[in-house]
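# step 3/5: fold
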Amino acid sequence: MTEQPTTVTTIADGVARIAWIPDVGDGGWVAAVDAVRREVEAALAGHARVETLVDPDDEHAQRVATWSGMRKEGVMRGVTVDGETVDRIVYARLATDVPVHEPEGFRALLNSFLPRKRAISQLLVRDTDGRVLLCQLTYKQDWDLPGGVVEVGESPQLAVSREVEEELGLTLDAGALLLTDWLPPWSGWDDAICLVFDGGTHDPAILDRIVKQDREIRAAEFCTIDQVHERCADFTARRIESALANLASGGPSYTESGS
């Protein structure tokens, strides 16, 4: 019995799943894309969603899925295939997606699989004695600058002001960018970009206005550079020193893990 080059199975109401053999379209990449694309379009005539599950090690299948018009949605972990627990990349196309031949649809397709990087915004706030505002966090032992993760589609400069207001109850505008610091992958975290903005100089009495978000902030204090090194992780202390140096020199710089 000859194996079908492509199979389309309805797995839920309005949802179809497509699969294909490695040499669909006589093994050529362009022919494979064309064959799968036609099956996807045909399936969308009777389904709201067409999806496929692709082996992360199968680069050919990933390319076929992408250029047949299906967007990468993420990785489904722990799928059982032929009795084996494996991971699978989920690709899908919806009947409502803008066609790939239109600019918006093509951009959305590229956006689904191009790399994305986490961004963190922090604020360098000093008092009149030159000390730096640090926060003792509930979810880790070392202290850090106020700030947090930038939300999707959010300005990093506005994000840090939002985080400071949410976590400390302070309304502080973020000034000029002082430092761009790349953080390599570490202890379960993917890599990230940390942006440090100038939070200005303030009277130490600003601490009296702080209203801590108790689930994230234990304490907030102005600290000397010696206290920064005592309380912060090494890379955080290096980042703070670099930001202070750039504040004095009048220009931002780029560092990696603070160096």
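# step 4/5: annotate
The mean pLDDT is 94.
# step 5/5: archive (pending)
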